[in-house]
Amino acid sequence: MTRPLRIGNASGFYGDRFDAVREMLTGGPLDVLTGDYLAELTMLILGRSRLKDPKRGYATTFLRQLEESLGLAHERGVKIVTNAGGLNPAGLADAVRELADRTGVPVRVAHVEGDSRPVPDGHLTANAYLGGGGIAACLRAGADIVVTGRVTDAALVTGPAAAHFGWGPGDHDALAGAVVAGHVLECGTQATGGNYAFFGDHDVRRPGFPLAEIHEDGSSVITKHDGTGGVVDTGTVTAQLLYETGGARYAGPDVTARLDTVTLAPDGPDRVRISGVRGEAPPPTLKVGLTRLGGWRNEVVFVLTGLDIDAKSRLVRDQFADALDRAGSEPAEVRWDLVRTDRADAATEETASALLRLVVRDPDADAVGRAVSGAAVELALGSYPGFHVTAPPGKGAPYGVFEAAYTPAGEVEHVAVLPDGSRESVPAAGPYAELAEVDEPDLPEPLPAGPTRTAPLGAVAGARSGDKGGDANVGVWVRGDDAWRWLAHELTVDRFRELLPETAELTVVRHVLPRLRALNFTVHGLLGEGVAAQARFDPQAKAVGEWLRSRHVAVPLHLLDEDEPEAHA
Description:
Elements: E1 5-9, H1 20-27, E2 32-35, H2 40-52, H3 60-76, E3 79-82, H4 89-103, E4 109-113, E5 125-128, H5 133-140, E6 145-147, H6 155-165, H7 172-185, E7 210-214, E8 220-224, H8 234-242, E9 249-251, E10 256-258, E11 263-266, E12 272-275, E13 278-280, E14 285-305, H9 309-327, E15 333-339, E16 353-362, H10 365-368, H11 370-378, E17 388-389, E18 397-408, E19 414-417, E20 423-426, E21 452-456, E22 462-468, E23 471-477, H12 481-490, H13 493-499, E24 507-513, E25 518-524, H14 544-550, E26 552-556, H15 557-561
Parallel strand pairs: 1-2, 2-3, 3-6, 4-6
Antiparallel strand pairs: 1-7, 4-19, 5-14, 7-8, 8-12, 9-10, 10-13, 11-12, 14-16, 14-17, 14-18, 15-16, 19-20, 21-26, 22-23, 23-25, 24-25
Helix pairs in contact: 1-3, 3-4, 5-6, 6-7, 9-11
């Protein structure tokens, strides 16, 4: 039997902890180190960078990290796989070779092409989400460093695992297990206690980055280097499994992983075993991420202090509307949000103040520029008492939009450019299977009626939320069987909408994952045109789960008074 493969992660996004590459290389044994630098917003940023310099379009931070760590990786025999190539993987691969020549480190560099698609009119970028096949081909050809463009986040793990174990496209269960492990690793320290609902249970001041021990059958153990901060337990792994996913079928270009088959179990301190994952044939289409400039936006935040907050808010809105009308330049979209951070009889001025946020958007830069900033400034001596703003109004800035399209998988030319410069075509992963919703599983027996106490949902349940384009997902889980019997019946779609009134008029879909004791909600349209459009106070829905946990519900008394076991069945 082939030995397990130890794959670590050193980046969850473009801008993650700079020292993580060195920390992972020096912290313990590894076979492969991955780095995920791409997100929907990142592709837009790289697109704008490429407009200024066609030789760019990749994550330059990776090169700076590699300058101090390339020798370490070579000495320890650790292969590096990263999607930092962004829109220009060939350019980053050339830059890595130049770095290797300059430092005298003899490494073999390969890269993956084919994700770039024809860019529709009015758009900046168009990139298909590729699987791990190109990465596997590069590693089989002896590459020490593999640079990709837009691949799925999990492909950074499925590619090395397929190369190491010799998996083929039909090894669906093994590939699905690697996809699940890759999804846990992809966001870095979110798997080791970062952004974790029960953060008070552990020291997470500087969590270490995660790694996975992948086995030949696709099962894995999620852990971290000894002596690093944070924690790995079934809760942290569950939270990350739910992050930015939807239903039971988690589709990708390599395989469709069945999240409803995942079994988690403790495997020692800071070790969680993932097993039982079933896989199915991937869908016949690949997701294509499209980015474009959506227009221009401006923002002004007025500070309202003390008494008569609502009246002060109305006055500003009326004055602003009048000023824009006089200027004959009202933006296409004007949004006001009054955030009541104020308290009565407050001991400090800051806690006596509320924030009135104005966001304007328009296809024309002039419509959100001087007319808006001028109207705000001109109110300074003629509006509500105590008038001030958090920052001087500016001239406005462009905002972006992310859109998803789909293209037949067989029409995308997936190419591995090997260390010797030769090009290897990567066959599509077919045969395929159209995606379909799974039947909702049977719910557990409800708890018998008994005494309850009003308490925050978060006293019993954890949550993690995030974004996918204009949609948000909110995963909610509990740590014991009785809590699951209660949650599965308590948190229906209707109850979810009641607790989060902002979702009341939106389409909300609930997915039930009994093996994880979890519910995963998809809220369609909550984020408008997506994170880059910045239409919402929390544009990536990062805190929607914490908002939900803060809402008060009637909780069975014994769930509040007893510690729930953490082991998963």
